Recover the amino acids of this structure.
């Protein structure tokens, strides 16, 4: 289970997303005792996890990591990108991901994101997205006995 916190600007709204997800996981656990459940709150937007997978994203668009990070320095801090609206010097994640995808003639659709996800190094992504992806990965490994 993953919830996208969206553009909630306050810590209380962010916390609320996490609380709601935890409550849902508890209820799901009660209803499905035979299944392990891991939860995660994506910080700002789900695009953060695609943008944060810099190696896989660069591979998918056919450029080097250096080229990608030079042209789009925002990829270094994907959890600071807002979902839709730009603020100050920070770009919005959805338009940024679309621009990156279009740079190689693709759309940032589900198929594009899935291709990036298939080649993502999850340990690197956990370092790039420590607020959202790292705890989710830790839960997955804990509940499903997966080794790093």
């Amino acid at each position: 289970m993953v919830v996208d916190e969206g553009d909630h600007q306050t810590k209380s709204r962010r916390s609320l997303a996490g609380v709601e997800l935890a409550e849902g996981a508890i209820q799901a656990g009660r209803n499905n005792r035979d299944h392990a459940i891991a939860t995660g709150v994506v910080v700002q937007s789900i695009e953060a996890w695609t943008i944060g997978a810099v190696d896989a994203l660069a591979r998918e668009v056919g450029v080097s990591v250096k080229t990608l990070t030079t042209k789009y320095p925002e990829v270094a801090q994907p959890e600071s990108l807002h979902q839709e609206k730009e603020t100050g010097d920070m770009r919005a994640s959805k338009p940024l991901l679309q621009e990156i995808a279009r740079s190689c003639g693709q759309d940032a659709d589900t198929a594009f994101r899935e291709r990036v996800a298939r080649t993502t190094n999850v340990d690197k992504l956990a370092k790039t997205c420590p607020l959202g992806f790292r705890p989710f990965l830790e839960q997955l490994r804990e509940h499903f006995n997966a080794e790093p």
Notes: Residues 2-144 form one domain. The longest strand covers residues 2-4. The chain has one domain: 2-144. Strands lie at 2-4, 40-42.
